[in-house]
Description:
Elements: E1 8-14, H1 32-38, E2 42-48, H2 54-63, H3 67-70, H4 87-93, E3 97-102, E4 115-117, H5 130-142, H6 159-171, E5 204-209, H7 246-258, H8 266-291, E6 298-304, H9 324-327, E7 331-334, E8 341-348, H10 352-359, H11 374-377, E9 390-397, E10 428-435, E11 438-443, E12 448-452, H12 470-486
Helix pairs in contact: 6-8
Amino acid sequence: MQSPSRPNILLLMTDQQRAGCTAAEGGPDTMPRLDALHARGTRFDRAHTSSPLCVPARTSLLTGRFPSAHRVRQNSTAQHALYDADLLEVLRAAGYSLHFSGKPHMHPRPDDFDSFHGPFFHDSGPEDSGEQAAFDDWLRALDHGVGHEPTPFPVSAQLPHRIVDGALEALAGTAGRGADGSGGLDGARAADGAGAADEEDRPFFLWVSFPEPHNPYQVPEPYFDMFADQVGERAATAADLDGLDWRFRWLRTLIEEKRPGYDEEWRRYRANYLGMLRLLDDQIARLLDGLGDHLENTLVISLSDHGDLFGDYGLQRKGAGLPEALLRIPLAITGPGVVAQHRDEHVSIVDVLPTLAEWTGGEIPAGVQGRSLAPLLAGEPVPAEEFGSILGELGYGGVSYDEHARPPLHFPYEGRQFDELNSVTLGGEMRTVVAGRWKLVVDDLGTQRLHDLEADPAELHDLSGDPDRSEDLLAMQQLLLRWLLRTADDLPTGTYTSRTRPHNWRWAPETPPG
């Protein structure tokens, strides 16, 4: 497998973008520019996050490790990430200048980058005056809800526009420029690990991290009505909750108590969500145009940290269980050396770091649990066993609650305020393994659910007690156990060196096919 030497890297990350919401994925034509770009590259149709929570998932991207290994299992613990070397350190050692614009929600700090524009969050940016600050005040007043009228601010006030402004400044070589002319993508300051690389020839890593299409769900015209007639029907509603895990019902009860009748707005919620994707696509188009000649030698990776319930089960946002609506993510990679293709292997957000390490000629750090996708990007055959399944994790630890629990939370039970990320629905431990059509979900209380994703994509029917599926259940239990053994942490390293295989493919044959 041959890859180009040190291409530029553009990482486009959205927050809470559900797979299947673009034309290339079988949905509405929400992101035509990004779809057109990735039609020239590799799209992974079975990509998953490591955990359907922002910071744990982003830490997995940066470390190539599952949350149980990197130890960041909730959004408040990013600073405790455990790893040997993260993505920034790998790329810095390979001679890259590092640039960031957008929402962080990660353990690296602004001074870990050559230029940093932010921080942006879901209802605010760094500006403290003018129209942009007024828009942020309006966003906060929406209280992570659904806008029922077009947003009364122009696109230029929206967070994606401001984030792309910062990214374009980096491209122009102005962001972070010091008195000596250092900073930006052209002539970025020399950094430890860059060696004697000619600064004018240093490749760049630009991470553009959008808070959208995460709640609050709002868009201005023309996006507000753009997809109002394309929202489709829901795969499941609140009427289906009786057959699901209790965590879904607990969350539904909580939100209905706080915001009675909220689910009646599901069509507006979906229309706004799809409109946010088109708004994002228009801003990504600005950025791609701004790349100019850089684009031909740039590896463009687009993905999301996790999905969105999108109104299914009578729920918004996330926060209950491990449904595919939250676990599946869009993932596509385009650039020099990448073959135009669709791949149906099970891949994960944890695979990004080892892929970039190999693609840029570096070594995969110790403790990395992800697998390099570099041979897949080159169109090469891969071992079916290595990519035939994938693991997902959830849980803050401790012991799971039950459906009738009402412990003190970090927000009051009274009033409209709520957080779907709470200690009840996310307490304890949950694990899932997906392999082809089958999915097994288990928790620390001994509950297990087996789903046939082809016959039951909404995961409404538990087959774990069906005697006709006992062999399938056993096979999935054995596969989950094998994944749990695979993700036992190799860190810290010591006197004895563990055996490794090429591309970090632990279940590959001695001589990979091809």
